[in-house]
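User: Here's a structure from my thesis project, written as structure tokens. My advisor, Dr. K., wants to see whether a designed sequence matches the one we expressed. Can you design one independently, without my sequence as a hint?
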């Protein structure tokens, strides 16, 4: 009986983890399409989970060299040498990374998104559609 409870708990936890990654992938796709000027988007990231979530998209292509990308996704570590628009995943990194045009993180189980109008302008980008309400003029 204890084994059945343990296996059931493990399956539930695994399902919840997978669904969080899937949600993260969907939100990232929406963010990238909202700020990109192009239909096809080249993305650079060292995070394997992010790469796995985005690789099934027909319009987002993962590149191995940050100089050849349109956007950098910096989840684990921020590479300040790559001067490309960056989406970070912590508010601290958002405040301290000059190339961070946006931040996406989970707070109390809910996704939090924020964009810097000033940094977006510096890369000649702007947010379109329903995500435009998350653009901050204070950053």
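Assistant: Designed independently from the structure alone:
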């Amino acid at each position: 009986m204890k084994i059945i409870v343990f296996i059931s708990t493990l399956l539930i936890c695994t399902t919840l983890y997978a669904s969080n990654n899937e949600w993260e992938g969907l939100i990232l796709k929406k963010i990238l399409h909202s700020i990109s000027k192009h239909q096809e988007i080249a993305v650079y990231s060292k995070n394997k989970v992010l790469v796995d979530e985005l690789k099934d998209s027909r319009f987002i292509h993962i590149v191995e060299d940050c100089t050849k990308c349109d956007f950098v996704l910096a989840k684990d570590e921020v590479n300040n040498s790559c001067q490309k628009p960056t989406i970070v995943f912590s508010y601290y990194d958002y405040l301290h990374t000059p190339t961070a045009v946006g931040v996406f993180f989970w707070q109390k189980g809910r996704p939090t998104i924020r964009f810097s109008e000033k940094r977006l302008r510096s890369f000649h980008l702007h947010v379109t559609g329903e995500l435009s309400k998350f653009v901050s003029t204070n950053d």
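When you compare it with your expressed construct, this may help: The two ends are 55 Å apart (CA to CA).
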